[in-house]
Amino acid sequence: MQSNSGDVAAGPLTVLVADDDLSMRRIVAHWLSKAGYAVEQAADGEQALERIRSRCPDFLLTDWEMPRLDGLELCHRVRQLELPHYVYVVFLSVKSRLDETVAGLEGGADDFLRKPVDRSELLARMRAGARVLSLERRLSRMAQTDPLTGLITRRAFYEALAKEWERARRLGLPLSCVMMDIDFFKRINDVHGHQAGDTVLKAVARRLVEISRACDLVCRHGGEEFCIMLPETGEQGAEQWAERARQQIAELAVPIGDMALRITGSFGTAQRHEDTQTPEQLVDQADQALLCAKRSGRDRVVRFESLAESSDLELADGEQPGSLFQGVLARHVMTPAVACLRDDDTVGQAAEFFLRSRINSTPVVDAQGHLSGIVSEKDLMAALVSLKYWSRPIREVMKPHVICYEGDTPIRTIYEFLCRVSIRRVIIVDQGQPIGTIARSTLLRWFRNTVIANGLLDSAPQISGDLETDPHRSKERLAETARAMAEQIAELEGRLREDAEDLVPHVVGGATRMQELLDDLLAYSRYANTTGGAEAVLRSLLLNTSPSD
To answer: How many CB atoms lie within 10 A of CB 514?
Structure first.
């Protein structure tokens, strides 16, 4: 027999009949079975609730008065459950007063049938309920499906991921996510038009679904990005899946007019671990790996775990940098985050910040001070296509995903990461709050300062012709530099006492000048390594005096 469900289900509609009267249960079940419904029975409300939790039916036909849990309370409990779909509830009861009917409807019932039940009326009301369920589920499916690709939406994906996350946590099963981005998609739209871009999106979506298992879940995460959930799969398996998908997409020939367009994709993978706190963090880790894949050449797969893996670097004479990096953490090397923008600051405020502070990018934090992204002058330039963008919040133009490390991360980990990828810098955080940045220039400066101050190089850069042969002259230079440093500190302290509207330019400018003076101190100190030289310099800096005082 054809299903009664229409658009509701692939098979017959399921009905749970709950009644403590065995004869009533049997006769109602018989009528419904003959009409093509799949029927289960429960002798009381508790038994019915247990069945609903394990195998959610389409319909619940329940008596009002039952032992252990009556029909009204059962209806209340059902409406509080998080079920995979809506359950249409019909009361079978001898109660007929208006206040009783109102109480039942207020309790969550959809319809009433008065006992003794008439077969024709029962089947008519079931057909009416099936139409309601069909419409409800069609609307739900439309809300959960991307109209272009036919994939589930981002919201529906995260709901499914949360459930799979709990299952993986409870059973100790692996769970991985893959983030995928179509390379140079904007160029496709610009050159061939948005209709061509839509064709590419649909072709990629079909191919991702074709190579996925029945238990995998593919969603359109936004724009040209797709996210794939891989249950019971570790990151190595996710990497293999992503590599297969990358090759399959590279083989696509998408028909655009009279030509076949070739495309590629970049992939990032991540696996759930015990220290992965939320499903959203898992997706974010996959997105960070995707970011590395895009910024290190595109058309490749990057595992999130690989971002923290060490690699043996080939140095001259087999030397390893371990001695320089031993015990050095990110917080020891980073440039402190002098100031950050808030994600609700406007594009105009960000532009003013960059112009006055003489920096070209900065971390962005939320209202609680946690890192939410990074914004640069380039991001602002892209937004300034109209004056209306001047008052838009920078959360609309910032890059929401940045590569970040905790402050106690060994500096060698960050050094090797920046050696492998084209990303220029990373953000250093402490419990989610940005505390500094490390760029390639930061590492170069730290390396130079380390080797010069400790005399680790046979030949260091020459500062002045007479400094190396005349320690007294180098001490004079150290004294002059220390005095200038003290003046900078005094000037900054004075600025901080003033009631200025914007201290950021003074702080950033002073810090920059002091950094240059510190570099000079480190360079001159190599030529003044005589007894008392270092102590005199430090004393002059701390006491705001020269070494000769």
So the answer is: 15
Dump pLDDT digits (tens) for 160-214.
999 999 999 999 999 999 999 999 999 999 999 999 999 999 999 999 999 999 9
456 closest CA partner among 521, 526, 538, 535: 526
Our measurement of the distance from residue 539's CA atom to the centroid of its chain's CA atoms, rounded to an integer in Å, reads: 49
pTM for this predicted structure:
0.55
Kindly state the tokens that stand for 351.
């532009």
Mean pLDDT over the full length of the chain: 81
What single DSSP character describes residue 83? -
Decide if 371 contacts 434 (C-beta within 8 A): yes
Contact 522, 454 (CB under 8 A): no
How many CB atoms lie under 10 A from the CB of residue 472? Answer: 10
Tell me the one-letter amino acid at 69.
L
pLDDT digits (tens, 9 = 90+) for 506-543: 666 666 667 667 766 666 665 555 444 444 444 444 44
CB 380 within 8 A of CB 397: yes
Cα 26 to Cα 429: distance, rounded to the nearest angstrom: 65
Residue 290 in contact with residue 181, Cβ under 8 Å? Answer: yes
Burial of 288 (C-beta count, 10 Å sphere; 0-12/13-18/19+): buried
pLDDT at 383: 74
Cα 132 from chain centroid (whole Å)? 37
507, 488 contact by CB (below 8 A)? no
Count of CB atoms situated within 10 Å of the CB of 341: 22
Contact 516, 484 (CB under 8 A): no
Instruction: Report how far residue 347's alpha carbon sits from residue 310's, in angstroms, rounded to the nearest whole number.
Output: 39
Strand 361-365 and strand 371-376: the pairing is antiparallel
Question: Domain 14-143, what fold?
Answer: Rossmann fold (3.40.50)
CATH 3.30.70.270 holds for 154-307:
yes
Residue 502, both tokens: 């914007």
Contact 360, 309 (CB under 8 A): no
pLDDT given at position 528: 55
Alpha carbons 126 and 53: distance in angstroms, whole number: 22
The Cα 107–Cα 99 span in angstroms is 12
**What is the SS3 assignment for 62?**
strand
* Rg of the chain in Å (alpha carbons): 34
The DSSP line for 151-201 is PBPHHHHHHHHHHHHHHHHHHT--EEEEEEEETTHHHHHHHH-HHHHHHHH
The yes-or-no verdict on residue 459 having pLDDT over 70 is: no
Whether 195 and 255 have beta carbons less than 8 Å apart is answered as: no
| pLDDT at res. 538 | 47
Looking at domain 316-453, its CATH superfamily turns out to be CBS-domain (3.10.580.10)
Q: Residue 353 carries which side chain, given as an amino acid letter?
A: F
CA 444 distance to own-chain centroid = 31
Which segments within 359-508 are labelled E, that is strand? 361-365, 371-376, 404-406, 425-430, 433-439
